[in-house]
Amino acid sequence: MIGLSPIPAALPTSVPFTGPETLERRMGRPFRARLGANESLYGPSPKAVAALSAAAHEAWMYGDPEAHDLKAAIAAHHGVTPSHVVVGEGIDGLLGLVCRLMLAQGDHAVTSQGAYPTFGFHVAGMGAMLDSAPYRDDHEDPEALLALARRTGARLLYIANPDNPMGSHHPGATIAAMRDHLPAGCLMLLDEAYVDLAPEGTEAPIPADDPRVIRFRTFSKAYGLAGLRLGYALCAPDLAQAFDKVRNHFGLGRPVQLAGIAALSDKAHLEGLRAWAHQARARLGQIARDNGLIPLPSATNFVTMDAGRDGTHARALLEALGQEGVFVRMPGPAPLNRCIRISLGDTTALDILAEALPRALARL
Amino acid sequence: MIGLSPIPAALPTSVPFTGPETLERRMGRPFRARLGANESLYGPSPKAVAALSAAAHEAWMYGDPEAHDLKAAIAAHHGVTPSHVVVGEGIDGLLGLVCRLMLAQGDHAVTSQGAYPTFGFHVAGMGAMLDSAPYRDDHEDPEALLALARRTGARLLYIANPDNPMGSHHPGATIAAMRDHLPAGCLMLLDEAYVDLAPEGTEAPIPADDPRVIRFRTFSKAYGLAGLRLGYALCAPDLAQAFDKVRNHFGLGRPVQLAGIAALSDKAHLEGLRAWAHQARARLGQIARDNGLIPLPSATNFVTMDAGRDGTHARALLEALGQEGVFVRMPGPAPLNRCIRISLGDTTALDILAEALPRALARL
Q1: Hey, are the CB atoms on A19 and B65 less than 8 Å from each other?
Q2: Does residue B14 carry a pLDDT above 80?
């Protein structure tokens, strides 16, 4: 092979997540319940499904590279201007782009130990260094993250609120206070993928014009459109415009843009999702308790459950659930890895889980 | 704004192409005929449309990050193994990734003067240098490209066969011979976006295992699925695997993957497209001649026409066509810019063009 350039040559061929389809191919059979990827089993808005379906015959046309109408709809939804909006191929894609914009080889970035691995994947991709602060009581630790950013001279500080994989959250005011103590030259990446599912007051009261923060949202969680790969960021216009320097300008197809606009228009569906999530969280918590697991409080579309022992035990439980046909995931490092993480399911999926969990525990 | 890292800070906020939607917003009315982006007015396979539409209600699920089934279908189509296949968000997205993998700041890459701008956009994005060789008789010039690559120590040599924007092509054997004279350490990027529309023998007889070449294909042209953003590359397995280091692993949604598989399965649609293109090229050539323009031979889904004078004249004609409601594009540098480039249209679009072109010429 002709040699790669030095930064990629030094990277491992790593994959941020193994998909459930890969596990199914290894097992030789499909999962009965898909509860590991924090997808929305409540499903997308019927308006989005209809828009996607109606746009199928128009798939011969490229999407608008400026995503004018989609950005206008997002801006209206948030009470900002389209110049505050960046759209892209999921938060994953946007995290990659912000790392392209902000990180040079040897720069530092800060996250929490066990937080979203795709951020670390993109930091490594730039030849930059990722430093991580431990969680504190199953929450990301604002003070530790800030101290680490100061100590390393970090260019980026990543925090998710609500958090994945623990499901915990901070009041939005805590995040806003954090922003006030960022070291100079450090941009806060605020991942609010799950904020539509969180209690009132979780959304950080930070204006889109604040140059210290870029916040990320997605259509993959509350909007139930993970399969479309559509995310966006809100930030100051000059930073938003800088994405034009590195983004895949025609990366968002026409059907995807139309489906996103339709999804945003369906406020009733979002309300329905919230009510559904409230009930599904309660039932998932009950299933956990019925089996001797401790459900952690959740501000998301999943419930993380303390399995009561260590990572080896939780891993064995996860694998036993897989053998019972239930796909779930778990945090990586200790002490988070005493837990398994189960996405909210519909009645069918939760019935399967309720039946499978005691059987999985009996396998251990 | 918090400062960007040095490479992006030095980049212009450039856009490879202005979309027709932007032009429509400026004009305040839609185009009557969309003949500028080399989309397929023949449209996608009904099987692909049906697959996309049927997948809409499954859009809550992420796509398989390994795109196993799609890669298997592509591999079968080409008689290679899935390990020779990379899939991504259009050829545009894949060109960005190959630049990430191969180029460091200050490296050189080679293309033709007036060839596909998005390649140059991604080269610049890495802080690398783009050198370009002139076309020769409206064809990319293999010898000049090779000489330039040798002189600059280029890491990448880009050539499209058939070519965009001129519509010309070389026999595949010429490209294979070119490969034999690449300087050491230089990877050839062979863009075959239009090859399904080209004469027999245009596809380069280069095995996928050849470490000196990576070839790019798309669902945007012959398959009529530009709005899905689905492209792929064929190359040696070790290079293919290296894309895992930098790609957006969940970047291809589930509906897109399913539509791609369905499109590949419809051989009759591809045959129909070829017959349609043959007729549409003939009619487009006749429209050109009827108006005193000289159609260049085309191996693509567009016809580039010599408007008989210089770039100023061709630009004025393009703008006059826009005022008549017809969206077309034109090459950038001289002497290519004596031409305008018109995509193949259906009867409706070509009827509009036939009526608009004399009116546009009369405006000059």
Answers
A1: yes
A2: no
- Alpha-carbon distance A241 to nearest alpha carbon in chain B (angstroms): 7
d(CA B31, CA A353): 54
Closest in A50, A249, A253 to B228, CB measured: A253
Closest CA to A346 of A304, A298, A283, A256: A283
Option in B1, B21, B226 nearest A238 (CB): B1
Contact between B254 and B55 under an 8 Å Cβ cutoff? The reply is yes
For B115-126, what is the mean pLDDT? 97
Give the model's pLDDT for residue B275.
98
Contact criterion met (CB < 8 Å) for B44 and A65: no
Q: Which residues pair with B33 in a beta bridge?
A: B326
Decide if pLDDT at B245 tops 90.
Answer: yes
Q: Is the pLDDT of residue A14 over 80?
A: no
Domains of chain B: 6-43+268-363 (3.90.1150.10), 58-265 (3.40.640.10)
Confidence of residue B267 (pLDDT cuts 50, 70, 90): very high
Interface list for A 256-285 with B (CB within 8 A): 256, 259
Tell me, what's the pLDDT at B329? 98
Q: Which residues contact B93 (CB under 8 A, 6 or more apart)?
A: A248, A251, B229, B231, B248, B251
Interface of B with A in 175-194 (CB under 8 A): 185-187
Whole-angstrom distance, CA of residue A93 vs CA of residue A306: 31
pLDDT in tens, A141-185: 999 999 999 999 999 999 999 999 999 999 999 999 999 999 999
Enumerate the residues of chain B whose CB falls inside 8 A of the CB of residue A25: 68
Distance from CA of residue A108 to its chain's centroid?
A: 22
Residue A186 identity (one-letter amino acid): C
- pLDDT tier, A15 (very low <50, low <70, confident <90, very high otherwise): confident
Q: Can you give the three-state secondary structure of chain A, one letter per residue?
A: CCCCCHHHHCCCCCCCCCCHHHHHHHHCCCCCEECCCCCCCCCCCHHHHHHHHHHHHHCCCCCCCCCHHHHHHHHHHHCCCHHHEEEECHHHHHHHHHHHHHCCCCCEEEEECCCCHHHHHHHHHCCCEEEEECCECCECCHHHHHHHHHHHCCCEEEEECCCCCCCCCCCHHHHHHHHCCCCCCCEEEEECCCHHHCCCCCCCCCCCCCCCEEEEEECCCCCCCHHHCCEEEECCHHHHHHHHHCCCCCCCCHHHHHHHHHHHHCHHHHHHHHHHHHHHHHHHHHHHHHCCCEECCCCCCEEEEECCCCHHHHHHHHHHHHHCCEECECCCCCCHHHEEEEECCCHHHHHHHHHHHHHHHHHC
- Residue holding tokens 């799609």? B70
Q: Is the ipTM of this complex over 0.90?
A: yes
- Confidence band, pLDDT 50/70/90 cuts, at residue B7: very high
Q: Which helix (H) or strand (E) holds B240?
A: helix B237-242
Residue the block writes with tokens 């895992």 = B244
Q: Rounded CA gap, B131 and B111, in Å?
A: 6
User: In angstroms, rounded to a whole number, what is the distance separating the alpha carbons of residues B133 and B349?
Assistant: 35
Residue bearing tokens 């369905």: B262
Supply the mean pLDDT for chain A.
97
Query: Tens digit of pLDDT for each residue in B162-210?
Result: 999 999 999 999 999 999 999 999 999 999 999 999 999 999 999 999 9
